[in-house]
Structures are given as C-alpha cells and as structure tokens.
Amino acid sequence: MSASAVAPAVHSLWTAAAEPLTKIPAPHIEYVQLSPVLIVVGAAVLSVLVEAFVPRKRRYHSQVFLTVLALVAAFAAIVGLAAGGYGSTKAHIAAMGAVAVDGPALFLQGTILLASIVAVFTFAERRLDPVHHGHKVDSFAAEAAAVPGSEQERAAAKAGFTTTEVFPLALFAVAGMLVFPAANDLLTLFIALEVFSLPLYLLCAVARRRRLMSQEAAVKYFLLGAFSSAFLLFGIALLYGYAGSVSYATIADVVDGSVAAVDPALAQTMGNDVLLLIGFAMVLMGLLFKVGAVPFHMWTPDVYQGAPTPVTGFMAAATKVAAFGALLRLLYVVLPGLTWDWRPVMWGVAIVTMLGGAIVAITQTDIKRLLAYSSIAHAGFLLAGVIAATPTGISSVLFYLGAYSFVTIGAFAVVTLVRDAGGEATHLSKWAGLGRRSPLVAAVFAVFLLAFAGIPLTSGFSGKFAVFKAAAEGGAGALVVVGVVSSAIAAFFYIRVIVLMFFSEPKADGPTVAVPSAFTAATITAGVVVTLVLGLAPQYFLDLAGQASVFVR
Amino acid sequence: MSQVVNAGFPILTATAAVPAIGAILTAAVPAARRTAAKWLALLVSLVTLALAAIVLVGFEPGGDRYQFVESHSWIKDFGVRYELGVDGIGVALIALTALLIPFVVLAGWHDADPLETKSSRWRPTQGFFALILAVEAMVILSFEATDVFLFYILFEAMLIPMYFLIGGFGDRAHAGSDENAAAQRSYAAVKFLLYNLVGGLIMLAAVIGLYVVAGNFSLTEIAEARASGQLEMATNTERLLFLGFFFAFAVKAPLWPLHTWLPNAMGEATAPVAVLITAVVDKVGTFAMLRFCLGLFPEASKWATPVIITLALISIVYGALLAVGQRDIKRLIAYASISHFGFIIMGIFAMTSQGQSGATLYMVNHGISTAALMLVAGFLISRRGSRLIADYGGVQKVAPVLAGTFLIGGLATLSLPGLAPFVSEFLVLVGTFARYPVAGIIATTGIVLAALYTLVLYQRTMTGPVKEEVRAMPDLRVRELAVVAPLIALLIFLGVFPKPLTDIVNPAVTHTMSDVQQKDPAPEVEAAK
Q: Which of A469, A499, A542 sits opposite B211 (nearest CB)?
C-alpha cells in the first residue's frame, strides 16, 4: 500500500466516516526489516524494568551487559539485512510508508550502532574517578535529582548510588537515532527527533562533577532544542498544507508537478509555493540545528562543555550521523526538484559553518569547547558533500560520517583520562607537557587531532578528500577552496594543542593521566584503529558507502 | 629492466619500506637501551643506502623513462593507484637522500640523549632516530611516486615527523635560557608546519581540480593524454591548477617571498635536523616542480616562467645579501640555502637542457655541500655552546681539522671550481643565459656575494686571535671525522668527475624538455656565421 493512496482518504474525513469501519486495513509491519530498531527499543524497555526491579548492587552489571548485547544484536541484524540485499536490490519502504529500508538507512544505522557501542563503553567506565566511600563510581551523578551540594547528594554518594538510568536513556536515544535517518514521512521524522532528543537532554544533566554546569547545559540544550523542534513541526504543518501529505514520496511528486488528481479539499493551498518554501526552510532549520551548522550552532559549545564527557562523545558522533542522514534523505528524496532553490542557501550555510567553526575555535581555551567548534567546522565540510547533489556526494558524506564519529568518540574518551583533583582537567593550559608525562596518551590524542585536521594517512584526510572531490565534481569548486582555507585555519588550533602537549614543559601541579579500565581502553583503541585503517586502506569502506548511496523512494 | 634486480622484486617499495619498518622498530626499543636504538637506526639507514645503490646501479640511463615500475590498485573510488617509477632525476635524489641519512644519524648521535634520566617512559632518543627514518621513508617514496595523489599524501605526511624533529629536539646551544629556547623552538616548528600545511592544502584544491578535469591521478596517463590531445584543458584551468601545485612547491623549496620559515626552522633545529630540512626535504619541492609542474602543465609553466625567474632572481640576491648580514652561523647557512634554491628554480624554469641538468645536479650537490658545512658548523656550535659568529675567533689554531673541513664546506658552498657545486652552478648560469641573458648576468652577483659571506664567516670564526672561551676546544673526534670526510671526498670527486651523475640525469632532462615542447635556443654565434 503506498502512502499517496492513503493520504486523501485520511484527510477527507467526511467521506471516510461514511464508509464502514471494517475497511480500515490492519497495518502491515515488516518486523524483520525493522528488527534493528525493535531490538533496541525492546532492550530499552527491558532496561527500564531492570532499573525498577533488579537490586541496586547488580544493576550496573546487568545494565551494561544488556545495553551492549542489544546494540551488538541490532548491529548483527543490520549486517544480516545488508547481506540479504535490503540495502540495494530489495530496498523498499516499510511500515506503511513510514520507514525506508535502503542503503543509506542501513549504512547510517550501522554507523550509529557501532559508534554507540564504543560510546557506551565510556559510559561504563568506573576506574577513572577515585573510589568514593568504598564505591566505584562512573562519570554520572550519584543521584541526579539531588540538589548539587545538598545533604541529600552527600547521602546518596555515601550510599553508593549511581545513575544507571543512563543506559536505558542511551538506548532510547539510539532507537530514535536509528529511525531518524530512515524516516520516510515527516511525522516519523519528528517523532524520531523527539525520541532521541529527550533522553539526550537528560543525559546532559547528570554529570557527577561540575553539576551546575551540566544542568545549565541541559537546560540550554532543552530550550533551544524545543525551539528547533517547534520550527520543524511548524514547517511540517506548512508542507502538509502544500502537498496534502506528510509522505516524502508524495511531497516530491507535488513538487515535480506530477500529481494529477488533486484533492478538492486541498485545492486552495496545494501547490502553493509560499507554503513549500517557508515550510521547507523551517524543516531545514530544525535539521541544521541538530547538525550544529552556523547560524544554528549556539548550543554546541555550551552543551559539549557542560555534558558529561562520555555523553558529549556519544552526542557529537551519533547525533551528527543521524541528523545528516535525515538531512540527506530530505534533500535528495523530497526535494530533488528544488535543487536550484536549496543549493544557494546551503552554499551560504556551508561557507559560514566552515569558516565560523574554524575561526572561533582559535580563541578557545577549553578542550571540550575546542572540540565543539571543531565539530561545527566538520559539519561545514559535510555540508559541502551534501551540496554536491550527486551519488558520490551521498557516499562521501556517508564515509565521512563513519570516519568522523570514531575520531570524535576516541578524542572525547582521551579527554576523560586527563584529570586533576577537580575531575577532568579540560582547561588547555593544564595539558601542557602531557607528552612528557604520558607519551602514549598524548600520542594517541595527537593522532586524533591530526585526523581532525585532515592530515594524510588518517581517516580525516580520506573523508575530507571524498567530500571535497564530490563537491568539486558537483560544480562547487568555490566551496572546495573555502573548505581548504578553513582547513588551514583549523589546522592552526589542532597544532596548538599538539605544541602544548609535546613542546611545553609540564607544570608542577599538572593533571595526572588516569589508567582506564578495559572499557575506555577499548574505545580509544577502536578509535585509533579505525582512524588509521580508514586513512591507509579506505577502499573497502568507500565501496560500502558507494553501494549504499541509493535512496529508495 | 636490469640484471641487478629480479624483475619481480619491488625494489622501490623496499627502499621506502626498510626505513619505515626501521622507524617503528627503533621507536619500540626499550627506554634503557638508548645505544641499541642508535645502532639500529644507523644499520637501517645503511641497508637503505645499499638498496638505493642497487637502484642506482640497475638504472639504465638510456632505457625507459620510468624504470622499476610498480603499479597496484589502492583506492579505486578516488582513482588512486600505488604507482612507483623512477627517472634519472628521481634516482639521483634517492641516492642523495639515502647517502645523507647515515651521516645525519651519526652526526646526531648524542643530540637526543635525555638530559635527566628521571622519567623512564620518556624516550627522546628512540623518538629522534625513528622520526629521522620516517622522514627518510616518506621522502624516498615521494621521489618514486608517479601517482599525483600518492605524492600529495607523502608531501603532506612528511611534515608531521619533521615538525616533531624541529620542535622536540632543539639546539642545545641555547644553554642558560631554556624557557626562551623552548618558546623559540616551538615557534619555529609551528611556523614551519603552518607555512607548509597551507601550501599543501592549496595544492589539495588543485589535486582535486586535476581529478575533476582528468579523471585519474596517474602522472604517466595524464601526460600521455595531454600529449596526444585526448585531454584538453582550458587555458585558465591549467593556469589555476599550475598555480595551486607551484605554490606548495615554492613554499617547500622555498622561494622568495615564501621563505621566511626556513631560517627559523634551521636556526632552532639541531644541525642534523637542519641538514634534513634543507638538504633532503626541501628537495622534494624542487623535484616536484620538475616532475609535476612541467610534466602536467607545460603550457602554464611557460606562461609563468617570467614571473618565476624573477622571483628566483630575487631569492638568489636577497638570500645572499641577508646571509652576509647574519650574526648566527646556522641562520647564515639557511639564507645561503635560500640563495641556492633560487639558482635551482631558475635552472628548472630556464627551459633549457643545460639549465635543467644543472638544476638537478645542483639539488644533489647542494645537498652534499650544505650537509658538510652545516654538520661541521653543528660540531663547532656544540663545542662552544653558542651560535653567534662573534663568540668565535682563531679556531683554526686550536682545532685545525675542524677549521679545514669547515673551509672546504664553505668553499663548496661558494662553488669553487674543482668542487661539485661549481659544475651545477655553471650549467645553470649557462642554461639561463642562453634564454634569459639579463637574468643570467644578475644571478652571477649571487656567486660574488656567496664568496663574501662564506669567507667572512670563515675569517671571523676561524682566524684572528684565539678567543678565551675557544682555547680548550677539542678537534674533531673520530665519529665526527667519519661524518665529514666522506662528504668532502664526494664533493671533490663529483667536482672533478661529474660524468656518472650527468649520464643519469641528462636523458631524464631530455624527457622533461620534450614535455614542455622546448628546444635549446641555437647558440647565437653560430647564427651569426
């Protein structure tokens, strides 16, 4: 059943009511194709039950086990689907037109799941903070609801409470992210957005150290996120008015002008370009907010800085993948007929994002804020690939997202290791001479920084080359030049951190590098390995991204 | 292919793989076994030298343009192949690199010994030698790459180990003000990296542009397609792409006005690292001008020639003038190098076979002569702990061997007949004069100024009354002699008998000349008859 056939019937309420109720069809759900999402949602529900019924002592272990198991199982399901040809020959629209199962969706879902697995490892890390009242503690508050500095908080810490709720929250967020790039109608898009945003707002607020900053970040993120959701929703309403449907395929048809039978109820507004352009601009705004593109980036540095570092890493990687996936699908499936209209706008956004991120990053003195601005600049590079509007554009963005998410999670994982008495030492001046104290950690971080800077033989270079090549082939040569210039600017501050780590004398009261457990070590190792493999031999993954670059309509 | 090497053996990969693997092994040597790391690095560099010698002997000057060709698929999506091949120019430069590295290692034997042995995990010595070998691997491979993308990757990647070598292992001559020294060193390293990175990124835009135009990265395929007329490039496109490439190479070479990173980098780096910068890494820039600028964009190269010759002339005179005015020995050598790079670039763009042969020989000879002069200067500086010329005087009475070798290195730098650089400088001048007489005449002032700065340097440091601080200065040790003596022998040998080198280089130059469709201008005397 195609969505376009359903839409008029749903809308024309007075005719539908006259028909017998038995004609409402039972929804047809392809459980197998949707299994990755279902596994994660199921595990999330189960994880809530664990939170409710498993004794506090055992919760941490059961939650970690359950979360990792669910994510791995979901990833296995993705691999199974891809191997079964659902990414290419059997690609189709599932769940009554709500969700697309195609190459880009599976690739992005796989990337999100892999990134989530390594990110969850950093959630589970309990060896970095000193043992507190005889309890091993992680990065999250003992009791998130307790007022910072209150008696209640001290009591919770003493009792060894931990916020194991982060695991179900993360699972719900992952579920939303899995649906987001696969959403095939605007309502599913919106619901997926909310499903992954709300847990993220909460996750931002539960840092163990510097709790006020963490809560402030969460409020900021929540308020701005709510605004952007409102914009998105309003845009959806306008687009519905324009096309008489929320289905991507139908909107695309209306844009193309290939819809013959116009619903009389909609004849007034249907095909009204004002609705289309304003509605589309608002939807785009909502997505660009999640992507962190200038001028919708204001939340990024504050939230990245305030959130618990494992959450920052998770958010920076997985959210970006999901949001870019949705953006790609929207631009390539819904609006190919509008390419000439959106391209100039996206050109502008890409240019200010690349330059803005790179230039403002130079003045930063906090490593997490620095990485936040760097992520803005990277969003700009990705937009250059999006703008290409070619199949290579899609595959290059897919590849870049995969490469970028591992570098990001790895880099934030290293940030969690460098600590002083007050928790993580994120001020840059504290990183002076780190290369002398712990050459290995500094070297690993240098690898990540070089990858961010796009130095050859790292994944950052392969990705950057791929998107720039796609952009140049798509006729956006000027964007490539801007990209290259902002890369040069960006290189300056990555190099500055390396200078600080290796060429400055360590300070007497400098931070120590905590020895992590196997969890964080695994995350960082995965980051380094992916960075180098994608830098030296990216062909297999480029092939994969290339095969996955066809959207289903 | 030659009998020396089995047809199937990837000898070119081996010349780069040996130092690359050696670098990893050296870095892995435990902290306490410093000396073992040094010997390992020396051994690896000698094995590399042996491999380079096999390439040199096996290379047939009259044979194919690119020999020992290797070609494997690498990143299919980008149209990138792992393609290697050497022409005469490449062979000469590989030989130079492989030759110099053992001396660099030997000269830097004690440069990276940790001052205090408190921290057991900090292993500067292992790092120092591993980085040198890593640079060697990348430089050699970049002389072999016939795929533009592969070359670009190496061109950029070699900056990173170079950067750590400059910033991490400064000159100990700064004794007393360690804080200040570290700041200056890190400034020099960052300046080096940023200049070259910006150059490289602009080249990246051009590399991508080339791909969009040509559809692949193979130097040979693109050149063929261009020659046969299959690949048309709009004049403006070609010029923009040429500028993108040339800018990067001009930063690396370095050409005035993009040269300012070199004096800082060479001044702050230890002498062996300074040799690595100017004698080895910078040669990639001039080499790439010959191979990529002329090979891929012949028309645009001809279009840009007047400007480039002018810039080269400015480099020659400006570098020499600033060298005269220097008070710091290492910065003096750096400015002299800028002047010499001006000669090399002028020779390349004079578009005559003499000019280009001369330029190629110049690259090799400049490498050897600067290495000799700089390493002796390094030995001198390490004895007194100062880089200032004014702190020396009368050294030849105390350390005659050191003074003598310093003199020979200096004389080679000023291109005294009988020493190797004379041949190349003469060829460059003759080649330039044939096409651009005025430029040729102005360039000769560079030679006069060279005599001034080297002889004044020698006079102020080595002659005159013996300074108090210099009185107890020991002469060259055995290790130091082992570094300097072979270099000087080579300078003399190639000065008297340059034929082996010219035989290898000349056919390659003929190819390059035919790339740009240029013939040597007929001598005017004959035309007058």
A: A469
